[in-house]
Amino acid sequence: MAFPRINIFLVLIPFLMLAMTGCAAVPPSAEKEPSPLRSTEVVKYVPPDGPRQERSGNCWTGSIAAPRGDAWRCMVGNEIFDPCFALGAAVVCDANPAVEKSGFRLVPEKPLPSESPAAADPGTGWLIQLVDGRVCNRATGARGMVDGKMTTYYCTSKNPDESAAVLGELKTGEVWTAEVAVLERATWKIKERMMVPVTKVWQ
Question: What is the pTM for the complete model shown?
Answer without folding.
Answer: 0.79
